[in-house]
Amino acid sequence: MGTRTRIAVLGFGRFGRVHALRLQAHPAYEVVCVVDPDPQARTAAQAQGFDAIASLDALPKAVQAAAVVTPAETHADLAVALMHRGIDVLVEKPMAESEQAIDAMLDAVRVTGRKLFIGHIERFNPALIDLPWGQVPGHLVFRRQSRLPGTARSVVLDLMVHDLDLAPHLLRCGPDEFLHILDVQSLEDSMQVVARMGDTRVDFHVRHGADISLASVCWGDQGAWNELLLSSRSDLGQSDALTRQYTAFHHELRGLPSLLADAQDGAIAARRALAIVAKL
């Protein structure tokens, strides 16, 4: 893939570790360092062979790009600081958890001219390499559940946001296509949303605290239904969704098109999630 991109990984928690290992194995990247304020996280990163630093103040000047895999409430401050240092950024979903944070990130893109992308990984799910239908369905149903505990707010911002991005991506809707929220129902550990996008009804079902983590999409018209199980898990290698996402990031950094969600895409998904949260 030519010259390797020198990248830093911010956050070495449960997910940050996976990101760092995928990047370490990717031929397009050189992982310069891991950044985490937690001494235990830095020790764990060093045990995996990474250089580890406590803050952006010690970030080497050689870094060209960064992956932000930290809690969502920190995304805006870190991404903005990185872009002002001349670094292109890939931020884990959701882009941010407030309108003000979203606006700050978009403003930094405009001011600095740096690239900002959001890790909506389901765009790279191996099950969705090709569209599963021949014509746009009249009804889509997304179901997603996680074993992790959560709140009514986090179930939308952490789980449903996957499908709030995936629905327009699969339906090939433009950024101006409006998502009409028809109904929102919040149960003890789950959320159900009925919406319409273009001519398609889209239902979103999400749940925290389930026995197993899984996701699926169903589609149909006039009683004929199909179901596709979705999974982003794979052995370390070029076929897994996270590796494919970082390949797309590398392409974008070199001016090549990809399926990666850009800052506007990420802002749309996050704002749709916030609009649903506001209806709780």
UniProtKB/TrEMBL annotation:
E.C. designation(s): 1.1.1.-
Top EC class, one word: oxidoreductase
Record keyword Oxidoreductase present: yes
Superkingdom of the organism of origin: Bacteria
Pfam families according to UniProt: GFO_IDH_MocA
Limits of the Gfo/Idh/MocA-like oxidoreductase N-terminal domain: 6-120
Keyword Oxidoreductase attached: yes
GO molecular function list: nucleotide binding; oxidoreductase activity
Signal peptide limits: none
Annotated keywords: Oxidoreductase
Gene3D superfamilies given in the database record: Dihydrodipicolinate Reductase, domain 2, NAD(P)-binding Rossmann-like Domain
Protein name: UDP-kanosamine synthase oxidoreductase subunit
Native species: Hydrogenophaga pseudoflava (Pseudomonas carboxydoflava)
Gene name in the database record: rifL
